[in-house]
Design goal:
5-stranded mixed beta sheet, alpha+beta
Amino acid sequence: MDVNAAVAAAAAIAGVLTGVIAMLAFRFSEREQKRPTRTSLHTDPVLPPGVDTVLSVLRSSAVVLDEADSVVKASSAAYALGLVRGGKLAVEPMLLMARDTRRDGEIRQVELDLPRRGTGRGEALAVSARVAPLGSRLVLLLVEDLTEARRIEAVRRDFVANVSHELKTPVGALSLLSEAVMDASDDPEAVTRFAGRMQIEATRLTNLVQELIDLSRVQNDDPLEDAEPVRVDELVAEAIDRCRHQAGTKQITMASGGTADLRIWGNRGQLAAALGNLVENAVNYSPARTRVGIAARRVTAPGGELIEIAVTDQGIGISDKDKERVFERFYRVDPARSRQTGGTGLGLAIVKHVAASHGGEVTVWSSEGQGSTFTLRLPEAGAARDRAPHQSGLEDETGGPTDSSPYEPLPAPEVLP
Protein backbone atom coordinates (compact mmCIF):
# COMPACT_ATOMS: atom_id res chain seq x y z
CA MET A 1 0.00 0.00 0.00
CA ASP A 2 2.80 2.38 0.96
CA VAL A 3 4.64 1.48 -2.24
CA ASN A 4 1.63 2.25 -4.41
CA ALA A 5 1.10 5.61 -2.68
CA ALA A 6 4.73 6.52 -3.20
CA VAL A 7 4.53 5.67 -6.90
CA ALA A 8 1.35 7.74 -7.29
CA ALA A 9 2.93 10.69 -5.51
CA ALA A 10 6.04 10.50 -7.68
CA ALA A 11 3.91 10.39 -10.83
CA ALA A 12 1.94 13.41 -9.68
CA ILE A 13 5.10 15.37 -8.94
CA ALA A 14 6.54 14.40 -12.36
CA GLY A 15 3.38 15.56 -14.09
CA VAL A 16 3.45 18.88 -12.29
CA LEU A 17 7.12 19.41 -13.22
CA THR A 18 6.44 18.49 -16.85
CA GLY A 19 3.61 21.01 -17.00
CA VAL A 20 5.78 23.75 -15.46
CA ILE A 21 8.63 23.01 -17.86
CA ALA A 22 6.27 23.03 -20.85
CA MET A 23 4.76 26.34 -19.77
CA LEU A 24 8.21 27.91 -19.31
CA ALA A 25 9.33 26.62 -22.70
CA PHE A 26 6.22 28.08 -24.35
CA ARG A 27 6.78 31.49 -22.71
CA PHE A 28 10.47 31.47 -23.73
CA SER A 29 9.58 30.54 -27.29
CA GLU A 30 6.99 33.31 -27.49
CA ARG A 31 9.50 35.86 -26.17
CA GLU A 32 12.10 34.79 -28.72
CA GLN A 33 9.63 35.14 -31.54
CA LYS A 34 8.81 38.71 -30.50
CA ARG A 35 12.50 39.71 -30.17
CA PRO A 36 13.91 41.28 -33.43
CA THR A 37 16.61 39.07 -34.83
CA ARG A 38 19.68 40.13 -36.86
CA THR A 39 18.13 38.57 -39.93
CA SER A 40 14.84 40.38 -39.52
CA LEU A 41 16.63 43.72 -39.08
CA HIS A 42 18.40 43.33 -42.40
CA THR A 43 15.82 41.63 -44.56
CA ASP A 44 12.67 43.43 -43.48
CA PRO A 45 13.60 47.07 -42.75
CA VAL A 46 10.86 49.67 -42.45
CA LEU A 47 11.26 53.23 -43.76
CA PRO A 48 9.74 56.02 -41.66
CA PRO A 49 6.33 57.19 -42.95
CA GLY A 50 6.57 59.50 -45.95
CA VAL A 51 10.27 58.94 -46.62
CA ASP A 52 9.69 56.71 -49.62
CA THR A 53 7.52 59.39 -51.25
CA VAL A 54 10.04 62.15 -50.57
CA LEU A 55 12.94 60.13 -51.97
CA SER A 56 11.01 59.43 -55.17
CA VAL A 57 10.73 63.14 -56.03
CA LEU A 58 14.27 64.21 -55.11
CA ARG A 59 16.55 65.23 -57.98
CA SER A 60 19.57 63.92 -56.09
CA SER A 61 20.51 60.25 -56.09
CA ALA A 62 19.26 58.69 -52.84
CA VAL A 63 20.41 55.57 -51.00
CA VAL A 64 19.14 54.27 -47.63
CA LEU A 65 21.39 51.87 -45.70
CA ASP A 66 20.57 49.65 -42.74
CA GLU A 67 22.78 48.58 -39.81
CA ALA A 68 24.55 45.96 -41.92
CA ASP A 69 25.35 48.50 -44.70
CA SER A 70 22.82 46.79 -46.97
CA VAL A 71 20.80 48.94 -49.35
CA VAL A 72 17.21 49.28 -48.15
CA LYS A 73 16.13 51.79 -50.80
CA ALA A 74 17.94 53.32 -53.79
CA SER A 75 16.75 55.61 -56.57
CA SER A 76 17.26 54.79 -60.23
CA ALA A 77 19.73 57.67 -60.48
CA ALA A 78 21.90 55.99 -57.83
CA TYR A 79 22.11 52.86 -59.96
CA ALA A 80 22.83 54.95 -63.06
CA LEU A 81 25.77 56.64 -61.33
CA GLY A 82 27.11 53.26 -60.23
CA LEU A 83 26.67 53.96 -56.51
CA VAL A 84 24.82 50.68 -55.83
CA ARG A 85 25.95 47.27 -57.04
CA GLY A 86 24.72 43.91 -55.82
CA GLY A 87 22.62 45.44 -53.06
CA LYS A 88 25.64 47.21 -51.54
CA LEU A 89 27.03 50.73 -51.65
CA ALA A 90 29.95 50.51 -54.10
CA VAL A 91 31.78 53.73 -53.17
CA GLU A 92 34.10 53.11 -50.22
CA PRO A 93 34.46 56.76 -49.03
CA MET A 94 30.67 57.10 -48.89
CA LEU A 95 30.38 53.81 -47.02
CA LEU A 96 32.87 55.00 -44.40
CA MET A 97 30.92 58.25 -44.03
CA ALA A 98 27.71 56.27 -43.50
CA ARG A 99 29.32 54.18 -40.76
CA ASP A 100 30.67 57.26 -38.97
CA THR A 101 27.26 58.94 -39.13
CA ARG A 102 25.56 55.80 -37.81
CA ARG A 103 27.99 55.76 -34.90
CA ASP A 104 27.78 59.42 -33.77
CA GLY A 105 24.64 60.74 -35.51
CA GLU A 106 26.44 63.68 -37.15
CA ILE A 107 25.60 64.89 -40.66
CA ARG A 108 28.56 64.74 -43.05
CA GLN A 109 29.21 66.13 -46.52
CA VAL A 110 32.09 65.70 -48.97
CA GLU A 111 32.85 66.25 -52.68
CA LEU A 112 34.36 63.32 -54.59
CA ASP A 113 35.54 62.48 -58.10
CA LEU A 114 34.19 59.10 -59.20
CA PRO A 115 35.27 57.09 -62.26
CA ARG A 116 32.67 57.22 -65.02
CA ARG A 117 30.98 53.88 -65.71
CA GLY A 118 31.48 52.23 -69.06
CA THR A 119 34.46 54.32 -70.20
CA GLY A 120 38.13 53.52 -70.15
CA ARG A 121 39.31 57.09 -70.69
CA GLY A 122 39.62 57.91 -66.99
CA GLU A 123 36.90 60.56 -67.12
CA ALA A 124 35.58 61.41 -63.66
CA LEU A 125 32.18 62.36 -62.29
CA ALA A 126 32.24 65.20 -59.78
CA VAL A 127 29.68 64.53 -57.04
CA SER A 128 28.67 65.98 -53.69
CA ALA A 129 27.67 63.37 -51.08
CA ARG A 130 25.71 64.16 -47.90
CA VAL A 131 25.02 61.54 -45.21
CA ALA A 132 22.45 61.92 -42.39
CA PRO A 133 20.82 59.58 -39.85
CA LEU A 134 17.30 58.43 -40.73
CA GLY A 135 15.60 57.28 -37.58
CA SER A 136 17.50 55.12 -35.11
CA ARG A 137 18.61 52.33 -37.44
CA LEU A 138 18.89 53.73 -40.97
CA VAL A 139 21.26 56.14 -42.74
CA LEU A 140 20.33 58.33 -45.72
CA LEU A 141 22.86 59.16 -48.44
CA LEU A 142 22.10 61.93 -50.96
CA VAL A 143 24.46 62.34 -53.94
CA GLU A 144 24.30 65.24 -56.40
CA ASP A 145 26.08 65.17 -59.77
CA LEU A 146 28.20 68.32 -60.10
CA THR A 147 29.93 67.39 -63.37
CA GLU A 148 27.97 69.74 -65.62
CA ALA A 149 28.15 72.58 -63.09
CA ARG A 150 31.93 72.12 -62.87
CA ARG A 151 32.21 72.20 -66.67
CA ILE A 152 30.16 75.37 -66.93
CA GLU A 153 32.21 76.98 -64.18
CA ALA A 154 35.43 76.08 -66.00
CA VAL A 155 34.07 77.58 -69.23
CA ARG A 156 33.06 80.76 -67.39
CA ARG A 157 36.44 80.99 -65.66
CA ASP A 158 38.34 80.54 -68.92
CA PHE A 159 36.10 83.05 -70.65
CA VAL A 160 36.68 85.69 -67.98
CA ALA A 161 40.43 85.04 -68.05
CA ASN A 162 40.52 85.33 -71.85
CA VAL A 163 38.43 88.50 -71.88
CA SER A 164 40.68 90.05 -69.22
CA HIS A 165 43.76 89.18 -71.25
CA GLU A 166 42.30 90.49 -74.50
CA LEU A 167 41.16 93.75 -72.91
CA LYS A 168 44.44 94.24 -71.09
CA THR A 169 46.50 94.37 -74.29
CA PRO A 170 44.80 97.33 -76.05
CA VAL A 171 44.10 99.17 -72.81
CA GLY A 172 47.75 98.86 -71.78
CA ALA A 173 48.87 99.97 -75.23
CA LEU A 174 46.60 103.03 -75.08
CA SER A 175 48.02 103.94 -71.69
CA LEU A 176 51.62 103.71 -72.89
CA LEU A 177 50.89 105.58 -76.12
CA SER A 178 49.16 108.40 -74.27
CA GLU A 179 52.25 108.80 -72.08
CA ALA A 180 54.41 108.82 -75.20
CA VAL A 181 52.24 111.55 -76.74
CA MET A 182 52.63 113.68 -73.63
CA ASP A 183 56.41 113.22 -73.57
CA ALA A 184 56.65 114.04 -77.29
CA SER A 185 54.42 117.10 -77.18
CA ASP A 186 57.14 119.22 -78.78
CA ASP A 187 57.65 116.73 -81.65
CA PRO A 188 54.67 116.92 -84.06
CA GLU A 189 55.90 113.96 -86.13
CA ALA A 190 56.11 111.68 -83.08
CA VAL A 191 52.71 112.85 -81.84
CA THR A 192 51.18 112.00 -85.22
CA ARG A 193 52.79 108.56 -85.21
CA PHE A 194 51.69 107.76 -81.65
CA ALA A 195 48.19 109.08 -82.30
CA GLY A 196 47.89 106.74 -85.28
CA ARG A 197 48.87 103.80 -83.09
CA MET A 198 46.29 104.89 -80.53
CA GLN A 199 43.60 104.84 -83.19
CA ILE A 200 44.57 101.28 -84.15
CA GLU A 201 44.41 100.07 -80.54
CA ALA A 202 41.13 101.92 -79.94
CA THR A 203 39.64 100.25 -83.02
CA ARG A 204 40.80 96.84 -81.80
CA LEU A 205 39.24 97.50 -78.39
CA THR A 206 35.97 98.63 -80.00
CA ASN A 207 35.84 95.52 -82.19
CA LEU A 208 36.47 93.25 -79.19
CA VAL A 209 33.70 94.84 -77.13
CA GLN A 210 31.28 94.69 -80.06
CA GLU A 211 32.01 91.02 -80.71
CA LEU A 212 31.52 90.24 -77.01
CA ILE A 213 28.12 91.93 -77.26
CA ASP A 214 27.30 90.01 -80.44
CA LEU A 215 28.32 86.69 -78.87
CA SER A 216 26.22 87.36 -75.78
CA ARG A 217 23.25 88.28 -77.96
CA VAL A 218 23.34 85.17 -80.15
CA GLN A 219 23.69 82.95 -77.08
CA ASN A 220 20.78 84.46 -75.17
CA ASP A 221 18.30 85.46 -77.86
CA ASP A 222 15.96 83.19 -79.78
CA PRO A 223 16.59 84.10 -83.45
CA LEU A 224 13.34 82.51 -84.59
CA GLU A 225 11.13 84.87 -82.56
CA ASP A 226 11.46 87.55 -85.24
CA ALA A 227 12.55 85.31 -88.10
CA GLU A 228 11.83 86.04 -91.73
CA PRO A 229 12.78 84.65 -95.15
CA VAL A 230 16.23 86.00 -95.96
CA ARG A 231 17.63 86.01 -99.50
CA VAL A 232 21.03 84.36 -99.68
CA ASP A 233 22.06 86.64 -102.57
CA GLU A 234 21.56 89.67 -100.34
CA LEU A 235 23.59 88.13 -97.51
CA VAL A 236 26.45 87.36 -99.89
CA ALA A 237 26.39 90.86 -101.39
CA GLU A 238 26.40 92.42 -97.92
CA ALA A 239 29.34 90.24 -96.79
CA ILE A 240 31.35 91.17 -99.91
CA ASP A 241 30.61 94.87 -99.46
CA ARG A 242 31.70 94.65 -95.81
CA CYS A 243 35.15 93.35 -96.80
CA ARG A 244 35.60 95.25 -100.05
CA HIS A 245 38.09 97.75 -98.62
CA GLN A 246 40.32 95.12 -96.98
CA ALA A 247 40.25 92.99 -100.11
CA GLY A 248 41.09 95.96 -102.32
CA THR A 249 44.05 96.88 -100.15
CA LYS A 250 45.50 93.37 -100.61
CA GLN A 251 44.36 93.11 -104.26
CA ILE A 252 42.21 90.07 -103.39
CA THR A 253 39.51 89.14 -105.88
CA MET A 254 36.12 88.21 -104.39
CA ALA A 255 33.76 86.12 -106.53
CA SER A 256 30.27 84.76 -105.82
CA GLY A 257 28.24 82.11 -107.58
CA GLY A 258 26.07 79.03 -107.19
CA THR A 259 22.31 78.67 -107.22
CA ALA A 260 20.37 81.93 -107.36
CA ASP A 261 17.21 82.99 -105.53
CA LEU A 262 17.74 80.85 -102.40
CA ARG A 263 16.14 81.81 -99.09
CA ILE A 264 16.90 80.99 -95.45
CA TRP A 265 14.42 81.31 -92.60
CA GLY A 266 16.01 83.17 -89.69
CA ASN A 267 17.22 86.38 -88.11
CA ARG A 268 18.65 88.55 -90.86
CA GLY A 269 21.09 90.43 -88.61
CA GLN A 270 22.60 87.26 -87.12
CA LEU A 271 22.87 85.50 -90.47
CA ALA A 272 24.57 88.52 -92.02
CA ALA A 273 27.03 88.71 -89.13
CA ALA A 274 27.87 85.00 -89.41
CA LEU A 275 28.51 85.05 -93.15
CA GLY A 276 30.33 88.38 -92.85
CA ASN A 277 32.69 86.88 -90.26
CA LEU A 278 33.53 83.96 -92.57
CA VAL A 279 34.28 86.23 -95.52
CA GLU A 280 36.27 88.64 -93.37
CA ASN A 281 38.39 85.78 -92.02
CA ALA A 282 39.00 84.53 -95.55
CA VAL A 283 40.25 87.96 -96.63
CA ASN A 284 42.35 88.59 -93.54
CA TYR A 285 44.12 85.22 -93.69
CA SER A 286 44.72 85.18 -97.45
CA PRO A 287 47.92 86.41 -99.11
CA ALA A 288 47.82 89.35 -101.50
CA ARG A 289 46.67 88.82 -105.09
CA THR A 290 44.65 85.70 -104.31
CA ARG A 291 40.96 84.87 -104.61
CA VAL A 292 38.06 84.37 -102.20
CA GLY A 293 34.99 82.53 -103.48
CA ILE A 294 31.44 82.40 -102.05
CA ALA A 295 29.03 79.80 -103.42
CA ALA A 296 25.51 78.74 -102.39
CA ARG A 297 23.44 75.70 -103.30
CA ARG A 298 20.47 73.62 -102.16
CA VAL A 299 21.05 70.11 -100.78
CA THR A 300 18.69 67.40 -99.58
CA ALA A 301 19.04 66.15 -95.99
CA PRO A 302 16.98 63.72 -93.86
CA GLY A 303 15.40 66.65 -91.97
CA GLY A 304 14.48 68.62 -95.09
CA GLU A 305 16.06 70.91 -97.66
CA LEU A 306 19.24 72.72 -96.59
CA ILE A 307 21.05 75.71 -98.03
CA GLU A 308 24.84 75.44 -98.11
CA ILE A 309 26.95 78.59 -98.27
CA ALA A 310 30.65 77.89 -98.73
CA VAL A 311 33.44 80.45 -98.33
CA THR A 312 36.71 79.31 -99.94
CA ASP A 313 40.08 81.04 -99.73
CA GLN A 314 43.69 80.46 -100.79
CA GLY A 315 45.09 81.33 -97.40
CA ILE A 316 47.57 79.73 -95.03
CA GLY A 317 45.28 76.79 -94.23
CA ILE A 318 44.63 75.11 -90.90
CA SER A 319 46.47 72.12 -89.43
CA ASP A 320 44.60 69.01 -88.28
CA LYS A 321 45.12 69.79 -84.59
CA ASP A 322 43.87 73.36 -85.01
CA LYS A 323 40.74 72.28 -86.92
CA GLU A 324 39.46 70.68 -83.72
CA ARG A 325 39.51 74.03 -81.92
CA VAL A 326 38.96 76.84 -84.42
CA PHE A 327 35.39 77.41 -83.21
CA GLU A 328 36.41 77.91 -79.59
CA ARG A 329 36.22 81.40 -78.14
CA PHE A 330 39.48 83.36 -78.39
CA TYR A 331 41.29 80.48 -80.09
CA ARG A 332 43.64 81.61 -82.87
CA VAL A 333 45.45 79.43 -85.37
CA ASP A 334 48.25 82.01 -85.63
CA PRO A 335 48.16 84.46 -82.68
CA ALA A 336 50.88 86.68 -84.15
CA ARG A 337 49.02 87.01 -87.46
CA SER A 338 45.76 87.66 -85.60
CA ARG A 339 47.40 90.62 -83.93
CA GLN A 340 48.36 92.00 -87.33
CA THR A 341 44.85 91.54 -88.73
CA GLY A 342 43.12 92.82 -85.60
CA GLY A 343 41.31 89.53 -84.99
CA THR A 344 39.70 88.88 -81.61
CA GLY A 345 39.26 85.10 -81.81
CA LEU A 346 35.47 85.41 -81.38
CA GLY A 347 34.31 85.51 -85.01
CA LEU A 348 34.06 81.75 -85.58
CA ALA A 349 32.48 81.23 -82.14
CA ILE A 350 29.73 83.64 -83.20
CA VAL A 351 29.30 81.77 -86.49
CA LYS A 352 28.94 78.47 -84.63
CA HIS A 353 26.27 79.79 -82.25
CA VAL A 354 24.30 81.45 -85.05
CA ALA A 355 24.31 78.22 -87.06
CA ALA A 356 23.24 76.12 -84.05
CA SER A 357 20.46 78.50 -83.01
CA HIS A 358 19.05 78.38 -86.56
CA GLY A 359 19.01 74.57 -86.59
CA GLY A 360 22.11 74.25 -88.77
CA GLU A 361 25.84 73.75 -88.48
CA VAL A 362 29.18 75.06 -89.70
CA THR A 363 32.03 72.83 -90.88
CA VAL A 364 35.52 73.37 -92.20
CA TRP A 365 37.75 71.75 -94.80
CA SER A 366 41.35 72.90 -94.86
CA SER A 367 44.82 71.94 -95.96
CA GLU A 368 47.95 73.77 -94.90
CA GLY A 369 49.29 75.92 -97.70
CA GLN A 370 46.24 75.33 -99.93
CA GLY A 371 43.52 77.28 -98.18
CA SER A 372 40.26 76.57 -96.36
CA THR A 373 36.55 76.17 -97.04
CA PHE A 374 34.04 77.05 -94.32
CA THR A 375 30.51 75.80 -95.04
CA LEU A 376 27.31 77.04 -93.41
CA ARG A 377 24.40 74.58 -93.64
CA LEU A 378 21.05 76.13 -92.72
CA PRO A 379 17.40 75.08 -93.22
CA GLU A 380 15.72 76.56 -96.28
CA ALA A 381 12.85 78.98 -95.77
CA GLY A 382 9.53 77.14 -95.77
CA ALA A 383 10.74 73.82 -94.37
CA ALA A 384 12.76 75.63 -91.71
CA ARG A 385 9.71 76.58 -89.65
CA ASP A 386 9.03 72.89 -89.01
CA ARG A 387 12.62 72.22 -88.04
CA ALA A 388 13.50 72.68 -84.38
CA PRO A 389 16.56 74.80 -83.59
CA HIS A 390 19.65 73.44 -81.84
CA GLN A 391 19.56 70.17 -83.79
CA SER A 392 23.21 70.32 -84.69
CA GLY A 393 24.29 69.08 -81.27
CA LEU A 394 27.10 71.60 -81.04
CA GLU A 395 28.56 72.14 -77.58
CA ASP A 396 29.35 75.54 -76.01
CA GLU A 397 33.04 75.29 -76.47
CA THR A 398 33.82 72.58 -78.98
CA GLY A 399 33.32 73.36 -82.64
CA GLY A 400 32.90 69.86 -84.05
CA PRO A 401 34.22 70.73 -87.52
CA THR A 402 34.66 68.01 -90.10
CA ASP A 403 37.43 67.57 -92.61
CA SER A 404 35.17 67.36 -95.63
CA SER A 405 33.65 69.75 -98.12
CA PRO A 406 31.62 69.28 -101.32
CA TYR A 407 33.36 72.30 -102.82
CA GLU A 408 36.65 72.10 -104.61
CA PRO A 409 39.35 74.36 -103.12
CA LEU A 410 40.53 77.22 -105.24
CA PRO A 411 43.80 76.56 -107.02
CA ALA A 412 46.83 77.88 -105.17
CA PRO A 413 48.31 81.06 -106.64
CA GLU A 414 51.45 80.50 -108.62
CA VAL A 415 53.31 83.65 -107.54
CA LEU A 416 52.82 85.66 -104.40
CA PRO A 417 54.51 89.00 -103.90
